[in-house]
Amino acid sequence: MTSGKLLVVGSLNQDTSLKVHVLPKPGETVAAIDVLVSAGGKSANQAVAASRLGAEVSLIGAVGDDEAGTALRRQLEASGVDTSSVSTIVSTATGTALITVDDQGENTIVVAAGANDHLTPERIGDSDFGGAAIISLCLEVPDHVLVYAALRAKRQGARVMLNASPLRAFDCALLELADIVVVNEHEYSALFGELPAEDDDWLTKLAELATQLLIVTLGKDGAIAVDRSTPTPTIHRQESRHVEAVDTTGCGDALAGVLAGELSKGTPLPEALERATAFASLVATRSGAQSSYPSREAFAQWQAEQAYAYE
């Protein structure tokens, strides 16, 4: 398996998270217990998660010429992510996400795209794809940018990973170009129908798609990977670690980012999936998105503690 860097194309947001006892119903006002302002955006989250565990990561995206944009860039650089291809859009606000999190760790999220909507193919250079083994895409930037990036990546021999999130109507060419598709169970159902019950049904469904590897994340139940990149198609099931969730914000991004990072390093799929689900489990016990992502050392220590606990 070829190794190289991970190139992430997509979004950067400033997150404002409000901790509440119960998520508000339509027309209802609830009191916030706590407020956390932190770095976010699905693509930036994935880049940081991958970099924290040792992948070489570059990010293509856009921020505004405001304090939030400056702070996001610094946060990425502090996490080891190459931001040389993050553009600053003049007279434009950086993307913003407003998040509410309840006592069970469930959340609601409202996003204002801001500078993310100003990312264009012209801001993506030829050199950005050099040495990339995997390019990771999500749906928080315009479709024409994603299609352009996917086509460029394919021409240069990189595998394209599409995290079809946050789910919306999108150009079907993205599914046709994607070598790897990552979705949660709700996204899977919306795109492809009912979750298969048997292994043969999973393999039949994958055969209907252009992608070589389908990853379906199942929250506390882990993830399933259906892989036909080998002569004999295989199914990998990975359980999550049992934890008490504090905040699930950024968990899906953490899993997708670590998975992409590990695959870009040449890590075999079963090991990459195990690391990704374990990392996401730990993230669920902390507040925020990037602010909840542990260092490689902290993650290794937590894994060792978990192994000891189950002996």
From TrEMBL:
User: Which InterPro entries does this entry report, sorted A to Z?
Assistant: PfkB_dom, Ribo/fructo_kinase, Ribokinase, Ribokinase-like
One Pfam entry for this protein is: PfkB
- Gene3D superfamilies xref list: 3.40.1190.20
Description of activity control = Activated by a monovalent cation that binds near, but not in, the active site. The most likely occupant of the site in vivo is potassium. Ion binding induces a conformational change that may alter substrate affinity.
Enumerate the cofactors the protein uses.
Answer: Mg(2+)
**Source species, domain of life:** Bacteria
Cite the GO molecular-function annotations of the record: ATP binding; metal ion binding; ribokinase activity
Q: Which residues form the Carbohydrate kinase PfkB domain?
A: 5-295
Q: What does UniProt list as catalytic?
A: 253 (proton acceptor)
Q: Where does substrate bind?
A: 13-15, 41-45, 140, 253
Record text on cofactor binding: Requires a divalent cation, most likely magnesium in vivo, as an electrophilic catalyst to aid phosphoryl group transfer. It is the chelate of the metal and the nucleotide that is the actual substrate.
The chemistry this enzyme catalyses reads:
D-ribose + ATP = D-ribose 5-phosphate + ADP + H(+)
Q: Which GO terms describe its cellular component?
A: cytosol
Give yes or no: UniProt keyword Ribosomal protein. no
- Keyword annotations: ATP-binding, Carbohydrate metabolism, Cytoplasm, Kinase, Magnesium, Metal-binding, Nucleotide-binding, Potassium, Transferase
The record, for CDD domains, names: ribokinase (cd01174)
Q: Which GO terms describe its biological process?
A: D-ribose catabolic process
Q: How does it assemble?
A: Homodimer.
Functionally, this protein is described as follows: Catalyzes the phosphorylation of ribose at O-5 in a reaction requiring ATP and magnesium. The resulting D-ribose-5-phosphate can then be used either for sythesis of nucleotides, histidine, and tryptophan, or as a component of the pentose phosphate pathway.
To which protein family does this belong? Belongs to the carbohydrate kinase PfkB family. Ribokinase subfamily.
Q: What is this protein called?
A: Ribokinase
Lineage of source species: Bacteria, Bacillati, Actinomycetota, Actinomycetes, Micrococcales
